[in-house]
Amino acid sequence: MNDFWMILILVFVGFAVLFGIIGLAVFAMYFRLWLRAYFSRAWISPLTLLFMSLRKVNPTTIVDAHIMALQAGLKDVTARQLEAHYLAEGNVLRCVRALIAAHRAKIPLDWNTASAIDLAGRDVLEAVNTSVNPKVIDCPDLKKGRGTLDGVAKNGIQLKARARVTVRTNLSQLVGGATEETIIARVGEGIVSAIGSCATHTDVLANPMLIARAVLNKGLDSQTAYEIVSIDIADIDVGDNVGARLQADQAEADMRIARAKAEERRARAVASEQEFRALTVENQAKLVLAEAEIPLAMSESYRAGCLRSQRQITNGTPA
Q: Among 89, 125, 257, 312, which is 20 to 30 Å from 53 by CA?
């Protein structure tokens, strides 16, 4: 009986020593990381760090992100949220940096929105930087190969314009909102429409802000990931007299139509003349045939005794 208890105690001590060695190994492995988290008031136990490694999560990344968030005053960001975002293949450090930048700039941005933006494939840190420091977009995009936006005023004069659009990120619309291409397309459409609504091209040349105000009043940034701050007309030039060219083309087309109709009438007249000539020749032929039958009729009448010669008429001889 004493041997059994002795063996049981030895087994228990062996397991205790084994667990102690494992504990010391784990503590030694994560001691420096835990110590850094502890003094930064990021309360993460060594056992939690071990479980992170077992879940294939980088503990160093989570600890660094948690420390940054706490030092910046972001107390709502927990280690569990950071770990979940890491497992979803998100960029944890970039999200935390974006939250810190938004917090410093007093831009409303919470962890759920930032993580959703990051998982959607958008650069959340760049989006926050654009909200703080608006960027300028060329309209039209010079990379597309088109240099100007061409519009025609009501007097027919073409104007070639280039605009620079200042935008900042609309974080609430960043997920699911339209991109820069939509902003460029809408602004281009608005500029062409604004030029077309002006009575003369001189109105636009005298006050290019007419175009900018007309475009801004249309609310072109709705349902997009950006908010338009301003639209500035960088350059505007006079192009061709499109109205005169169109009128000349129309006149040329009308002249061709008139020539075609005149040619049609001439062809009809020539055809009618030829028909009348043919009818005249036919009637002349009929007349010749009729005249040829006169001598035959007269000879038949002589033979039949229906006609008398001049001598018989003079002598009074009967037929």
A: 125
